[in-house]
Amino acid sequence: MIACLRLFTALCLAALLAACASSPSSSLGELPRTPDASIEQLLEQANQSKDPEKAALLRLSAADAAYRQGNAGQSAQILQLVPVEQLKPGPQVFASTLAAELAMVRNQPKAALTALSHPSLQHLSELPVEQQVRTGTVHARALEADGQTLAAARERIFIAPMLSGEAASKNHEAIWTLIASLPTEQLQPTTSDDLGGWMGLALAVKSAGTLEQQQAAIDNWRAQNPKHPAAVHLPQALTNLKELASQPLSKIALLLPQDGPLASVGKALREGFMAAHYQAQQAGQKPPAIEFYDSSKLTSMDEFYRKAQADGVQLVVGPLEKPLVKQLSSRPQLPITTLALNYSEGEQGPAQLFQFGLAAEDEAREVSRRARADGLHRAAIMVPKGEWGDRVLRAFSQDWQANGGSIVATERVDQPVQLAQQIADMFQLRQSEGRAKSLQSTVGSQVAAQPSRRQDIEFIFLAATPQQAQQIKPTLNFQYAGDVPVYATSHVFSASGDVNQYNDMNGIRFCETPWLLDANDPLRKQVTAQWPQAGGSLGRLYAMGVDAYRLAPRLGQLKALPDSRISGQSGSLGMTQNQRVVRQLPWAQFVNGQVQRLPDTPN
């Protein structure tokens, strides 16, 4: 009898707990329920209801139904009809969450975060689990989109125990993506909770160099944290790393043109690539075998891949030619993982395609990053006329404005004879001269007035050849704008050692490859002793060849560890989500005919 009574009591308690978990207390109010009625029927019922609270809940249900059906515009219109401030906290949380979801549809994370700052959210933990998960998920998405990566990870870790099945798996992978994208200096696991464990895992993996070292770091971490969610279910990216470590790279195909207009570019890339290969041999490593293929004699990429597969190739480095890269990027898949040495125009290619090149767009974004780090906000732009200048202008403008900068003037440089007029127009000097003449006619006598330039230009972004820059900088001095900082891409630097040319560009700051800024690098000294041209502007291609070799075995690492970087000769190398290798570059300045290295841009 007592046993039966205990069982009955336990069942009653379980039922009570289940009821409490599935519905909020009466003081919080009811949440809208998923209705069987259509949106139109819900709105009609709301219009006919004499109970304001019931009418509001019906409209909330209709707004939610419209959102779930993919009609965000209709959902937002209906939500505007709901008197949110007159509702109880539960429905207020529901309405705020829906408002945040609609803001994310419009790609407005700040508006979403504002919606989720409503006072009713302090009661979220008292609401049903389904609502907590829904609110937490959109909160995490908004924080991530707003650049608050760590806070987004915290939110996802908080909701993780409430999830199951596919939702739990997706959230688990999202946590790793967020944590792995944090810079190393932010990965300081000071707590022993789940967040501290995630950070410890990311730090262990990022601190290791080779695939083998990373695998050992993962195994050690799992042994120390056996009950952590990531130890129980290793994130897919790290599982992929484990597979990569078990498949060492033994043969690479180097696919470059040996004839035609790109033969000299192909030669520099090949010599840089092989220099890195020989350096690895000298260091006692066992580098992969290199098989050479001539892309200038290709008749079919399919035929090339068949031959490469027959030759036992595991990775292709190349092609260089843009039409071939474009062709590869349009395919659904490739038979062999390929590191193309150029970029296609499209955003996403097959999973087996990675792309790497000396993109001017990278340098434009680097200028934006540097100027921002230097505390500047208002830019003027000078780029050459034409398609190349348009691409550089677009890349700089998008990055600069996305990070809060403003553009106050833009000039496209073409004819040298127009430079003085273009710079005068940019700085509105003619308006200043006009005011002086107007004043002179008013007072009726000679007025001593030096033209004054506009003061809202904080710096100039310059993408130009050395010859153009040689004309632009002295013209800025002549037009009363010599004190305006000039930030340039590497294209202003000829690496010729011409002191007179450098003097004409005195004060210009520019980003450049580590290869050309560090003449004492051991590999560079070795290469330039054999190929002197590698110390000039061609050196950038030698650097790219070196980096292509060093990237080859680490593509999987960069893909698996977002925001991780490789210190290369063409820059600090990272990878975007669409598998494009992007560069961050060091900086230098022309000072009295010399090139002076500047401190690196802080991350």
Question: Helix count, per DSSP?
Answer: 26
What fraction of the residues are assigned to beta strands by DSSP? Answer: 5-15%
**N-to-C CA distance:** 71 Å
Q: What is the CATH topology assignment of the domain at 361-437 and 450-512 and 590-596?
A: Rossmann fold
From the alpha carbons, calculate the radius of gyration and give it in angstroms. Answer: 31 Å
Biggest sheet details: 7 strands, mixed
What's the total count of β strands? 15
Give the class-level CATH name of the domain at 361-437 and 450-512 and 590-596. Alpha Beta
Give the arrangement of secondary structure elements.
Blueprint (H helix, E strand, L loop, with lengths): L1 H21 L16 H10 L3 H17 L3 H8 L9 H17 L3 H7 L13 H17 L3 H11 L5 H16 L13 H14 L3 H14 L4 H4 L3 H10 L5 E6 L6 H20 L6 E6 L6 H10 L4 E3 L4 H8 L7 E4 L12 E3 L4 H14 L4 E7 L2 H16 L3 E8 L5 H8 L2 H15 L15 E4 L3 H13 L7 E3 L10 H6 L4 E3 L2 H4 L4 H9 L8 H13 L3 H6 L5 E2 L4 E4 L5 E4 L2 E5 L2 E4 L6
Parallel strand pairs: 1-2, 1-3, 3-4, 4-5, 6-7, 6-8, 8-9, 9-10
Antiparallel strand pairs: 10-14, 11-12, 12-13, 14-15
